[in-house]
Structure formats: C-alpha cells, structure tokens
Amino acid sequence: MSSLLEVAGVSVTFDGFRAINDLSFEIGAAELRAIIGPNGAGKTTFMDIVTGKTRPDEGRVDYGEPPRSLLRMSESEIARAGIGRKFQRPTVFEQQSVRDNLMMALRNDRAPFGVMFWRAGEADVDKVGELAEEIGLADELDRMAGELAHGQKQWLEIGMLLAQDPKLLLVDEPAAGMTLGEREHTTDLLKRAAETRAVVVVEHDMEFVRRLECKVTVLHEGSVLAEGSLDHVTANQDVIDVYLGR
Amino acid sequence: MIGRTFLLRHPSVMVFIALLALFTVGATVLSEGFGIGLISTSFVKTLGKTLCLCLIAIAMDLVWGYCGILSLGHFAFFGLGGYMIGMWLMYERTKSIVVEQLDAAPLPPTPEEVREAIGSQIFGVVGGSDIPAIWMFADSLIIQLALVVLVPGLLALVFGWLAFRSRVTGVYLSILTQAMTLALSLYLFQNDSGLRGNNGLSGLQNIPGAERISQDIVSIWFLWASALALGAGYLFAAWMVSGKFGNVVRGIRDDEARVRFLGYNVEAYKLVVFTVTAVIAGIAGALYYPQAGIINPAEIAPIASIYLAVWVAIGGRGRLYGAVIGAALVSLVSTWFTSGQAPDIPLGFYTIEWVDWWLVLLGFGFVLVTLFAPQGLGGLVDALVRNRQTVAVPPAAAVKPVEKASEAT
Question: Which residues of A touch B (CB under 8 A)?
C-alpha cells in the first residue's frame, strides 16, 4: 500500500515547549485512522502542520502521488491539493444558508474573478442536493446555518468537506457534544467517506473510536507511542500508563 | 452580464434604481437650469455631491460591511480621483485664459511662453513657475480620466498587497490605512508636492470648453452624471455580492481561517475588493470635486474617512441601500447644520450654535443607533419588510416543514 501522507521526523516548538517531537507516521490512500492521546499530546498541532497553519522547525511532510512537500504551500493551496479539515468546534458560515455553505465548498474554480462570474449550473445544484441528502439536511437547504442544531452543524461541516472532494480528510473531535443517535450517523458518514479517501479522526472518546473499527495511533508528548488496532494499543502498558490509567 | 433574472431576483435593486431615477427627474424639474427654478443651483450641486458621497459609501460598505476590512483610507482614494480630474480642469482653464491674454500682445506667443505663463499662473501661489512632472498629462482629458481610475487603483493594489500578504487584519489594518491617509494628506500639504500645497486646486466648477454655459446648466449635467455613476455603481456592487463571490467575501468577514481551509486564497479576494472599491471611490471623487469647485489636502485628512465609516455604520453595514441611506441622510443633515441654516437655540445663559454642536449631535446619534439599531437604519427597513412578508405568508406554509419531519421518522 502506497502512502498518501508521510510525516517524517517533524518537530515544532512553541516558546520552548516542544509540541511535536520527532513525529513520524504514514497514512494510506483509502484508510480510516483514529488518532488518540491525552491533552497536549500534539493532535491539533499535527493537524495545523498538515494544513499549513503551523510551520514545523524540522522534518518532512510529503503528500500525494508523486509525493510533494506541503511545507512550502499556503493553507489555501493545501486545501486545493485535496486536504480538507474539520475543526473541533463546528465552523460553518452561520449567516448564510445551508445551500450557500455547500455551494461555496463545492469543488470549483477558486480564483476571485472566476468566482465572480460563476453561477451555479444544474450539475452543481444536483451535487448539493446529493450531499444534503447524505448528511441528512435535505429539508434544511434554505435555512440559515446559524439556526441549525449543534449536531446538524457538525454534519453540515462534514458535508462541506465532502463537497471539496478531498483525498485526505482531517476531522477533529467530530462526536463532541453529540447525542447517541447523532454519533451513529456520524460514524456511518466517516466510514463511508473512508471507502474512497483517507480519513484521519482525532478523538478523545474511546467508545466512538471503537465504533470506527480502524487502526489507531496513540500520540504522547508529540510523538507516536503506539500504533495498531484499538485492542492492541489498549493492551500496551505504556498507553495504559499515560492515557488510560488516568 | 447583468441579466433580467438578476433584477427579478433582487427587487431591492430595481426599487433603488427607480427611486434614483425619480429623484433625478424631480431635481431636474425643480432646478433653475432646466425646470421651474424652485431649488437653487447651489442646492442642486449639494444634491449632486450627495450622490457622489452615496457612491463612495457603497464602496465603503463593500470593503467594510461585506468583506470586514475597516478601511480608513477610502476618502484618500476619493481625493486622489478629485485631484486627477482637477489637474485637467485647472490646466485647461488656465491655458484658455493665458492664451486669451497673450493674444493681445503684438507678437504671437511661442508654446514655451504659453507654458511659462500657465506655470506662473497656477504655481505662483506656492512660489514657483515650473510645471511639475506630474502635470505632464494635464493637457489630455483622456489620460487624466484614465488616471482617475489608475492612481487610486494602483495605490490600493500595492498597499493592499503589502498589507494583506503580511496577514495584517482587524484594528491593525485600520491603523495602517489611516497612516497611509495621513501620510498622503501631509505630503499634499507641502508646497513642493506639485499640487499647490494647502491651496489645493480651485476653480474646478468651470468646465473648459463650456465657459459660456451657465452653472445652472452645468450643475444639472453633473447631477445626471453623478446619478448615472451611482446607479451603475449600485448595480455593479449588487451583482458582485449576489453570487458566490459575495458568499466568499462575507465568509472572509465572519471566519477568515475557514474560508482559507476551503481552498480560497483569502488575500487575493481582499485585494480584489480593496482595489475595486478604491477605483469606485476615485470615480466618485472625480465627479464630486467639479461640483464642489475646490479640492485641498484637508479633504483627504483621516477624519473624512472616519466620517465615511460613521455614515455606513448609521445606515447599516452589509446592505447596500443602508450605506446609501446613511451617507445621504447624514451628509445632507450635516450640510444643513453646518451651513448656518439650522436656527440657533438661545438658552439665555448660553446659545447652542449648531455649527459647533452638530458634531455632538452626530456623536449622540451614532451612540443611539449603535445601542438601539445595531443593524443601522437599513436594518430597520429590513425589519419592516420582513414583518410584512411574515404577515403575507399563509399559515399552511409554516406548518409544512414539521409535516416533512414527521414523514422522515
């Protein structure tokens, strides 16, 4: 299996605090991966590095086929190259309709003048309809995103990510604040998305991770502590000590 | 580009254009130049200038209300547009006067003599007679008109590129734009800036080639031109924000980082909006100052750009008609109060003179709007329209979504 994303020897320091310490791992092209770890393990910083928000002090981040370094690309270039990110807090454009949110995310020309003259075609409208169906918001297309319930906003954001049609999806704590039913729906969404692309889920909640039935990477103090199936890593004594034991 | 479906889908644009046309026809009929003479020529000029201020308010609303960039530099672009057209007006007018004078001399004047005479006429007040290099195209209306667009546009492009690529945002960007405005204003105050220092350019109401036509008529021409520019500017702005571009720009205002992670180059969008609005401001200025008759560096001072922000805030950010309402209302009321037309209020021990107290009143009004109508006066219009619409909707439509939801379960 060729890897889609390869992180090698990455370190980053904030004011003397080493948030990421010689981190190395790989993610395959159509893989669902969970990243767990205690607070301050570097999960969010890892996402910031991959999406271009934070520049590492050293190391390599290569992506795609043939591999390209992400370190010289801007956030928007990385996003256009096919890496989508879902934030911990649902961030949708609250003052715009669900339809407009999805339309904006749809994979189309992103250059200012192209966008100025762009008007939605039939294919775009159909695509938005399909996406809305998939995330369960087909009846809410004309509502303002700000009026949606918390769980619906999370789905809308996932829908926006799917609209971008990314090759790699980074999802930060998707189940936070969701009810049991909403969690099941979210698990299905992520599993289905991972059939055709790589999905990396950062999650605190062990129950949710178990539901995903995927390979798990445990981070601790900015580097990989253990990797494997959930049962494998939860049996690891180091993991029990730093994370589960508490 | 702007089709019929666009107008049908945005009725507020049609309403605005209709009102503007009505206003222009009304003012023409009442004017001294073409109508029954009920309103004076100077008031026609005030109305024409107000239309130009409405146009720059639209530009401000685009850049601030829609894109979230509180620019305190747009009046500088407005002033630059005025200076560019002012150079042609002043040069040509002086030239015709000079040629007329020299024709009386026994020997016909050489081109050098004409140039020298123009130079000492225009720059005598700042102690010079050489025509500075920046006036080299002042003879050509076409080039000066192009400069009306190019000078503010290029300044905004370079300034915006430097500022946005460094990711300067929020209040820091406002301070930066204000610094630019202040620097430009201070530079123009210098006598050797080539634009007559604090004297500015004057006599701009005299249109070269139309000296014999009375100001009664010229003022109406400019009123029409201003109305036309405002209508076109409104249409263009409404079109620009109606589609996905508008959504992206509003997204940048609300959550810049999110837009970036969607793959949009936020800096490029800001630069486009900043530059386009600077060009609109330049055009508005080029129409304003021939009606004002004079432009000087004080017009460019940072306070003018702050007023602009106040107009848009009072009118209502993020809605184009709000900007127009704010600019028209506040600038007209301001003219009324500061031109001595408002009756002073004698309190016995103290007399409230509105020339001094108008600013206090404006500040008070600003506070009231911020507290009680945070969406501005345009927001009140919105609320009115929405109220009428909710009354018009039959109750069955309101029940529908609930039915659908129950079907789904």
Answer: 51, 53, 74-76, 79-80, 84-85, 87, 91-96, 100, 103-105, 110-113, 115-116, 118-120, 139, 160, 164
Task: Render each residue's pLDDT in chain A as its tens digit; 246 residues.
Answer: 478 999 888 999 888 888 888 888 889 888 899 998 887 788 888 999 999 988 999 899 999 888 889 998 999 999 999 999 988 788 899 999 999 999 999 988 899 998 998 888 889 999 999 999 988 899 999 999 999 988 889 889 989 999 998 999 999 888 877 888 888 888 888 888 888 899 999 987 888 888 888 999 988 888 888 888 888 888 888 888 876 655
Across the interface, whether the CB atoms of A104 and B268 are under 8 A apart is answered: no
The CA dihedral of B71, B73, B79, B80, to the nearest 10 degrees, is: -110
Domain that holds residue A143: 3-244
Provide the CA A29 distance to its chain's centre, in angstroms.
Answer: 14
- pTM, to two decimals: 0.89
Number of domains in chain A: 1
CA distance, residue A129 to nearest chain B CA (Å): 16
CA distance B375 to chain A (A): 14
